[in-house]
Amino acid sequence: MKKYITLTLLFVGICSFAQSSQNENITSVKLTEAYKQKAIDKVLEFYNYIELLTDPALNSKMKEHTANEALKLFITPQTAIHNFFNKTKTNPSISALLKNATHQKKQYHFTLTTITATPQYQNPEQEEWIVTYSLTINNSKGILLKQNFIIKVENKKFGNSIKKVKNTYLGEIIVL
């Protein structure tokens, strides 16, 4: 009888562990899909800001506000970016590119296709993903680009307490 009770308890324990492990895998898949969508949305948001900044009808105060919001998408203002406006000068910082965008004489339109986001690196403090996409500017030939997407654990103050939160940022853009 003692054997049967021990075997029953062992069987129940194994089944419980297997179900817990399966739930963790489902959560992990859902979290990965959520970050994948977040990465794609941030890239699209960036190009929407660039379109606004190149609109000659937008006043300088709105352009300044738009540039500041676009800058918040990136990990640092010095992040290197592919230059959409000048083929001779390569990889300016995001802040220089945004400034350049505000001085364009015509509005640019961007279309992104074949967008994929893939996790590359992970540690307890930061994850890095690669977002690849084809960018078409003003209906011209597409450019294949690769952009970093960073998920960073940072301290954030909530009232009197400080909590660790995951913030997301865009990183470097390079031509493939």
Walk me through the structure.
- With 176 residues, this protein is α+β, with helices and mostly antiparallel strands.
- It has helices spanning 2-53, 60-71, 94-102, and strands at 110-122, 126-137, 143-158, 161-175.
- The chain has a four-stranded antiparallel beta sheet, with helices on one face.
Number of helices: 3
Helix and strand string, N-terminal first?
Answer: HHHEEEE
Structural class: alpha+beta
Strand content: 25-35%
Shape: globular
Order of strands, widest sheet: 1-2-3-4
Write the layout of secondary structure elements.
Blueprint: H1 2-53, H2 60-71, H3 94-102, E1 110-122, E2 126-137, E3 143-158, E4 161-175
Antiparallel strand pairs: 1-2, 2-3, 3-4
Short description:
A hairpin with a 2-residue loop joins β3 (143-158) and β4.
Q: Tags for this entry?
A:
single chain; about 180 residues; 4-stranded antiparallel sheet
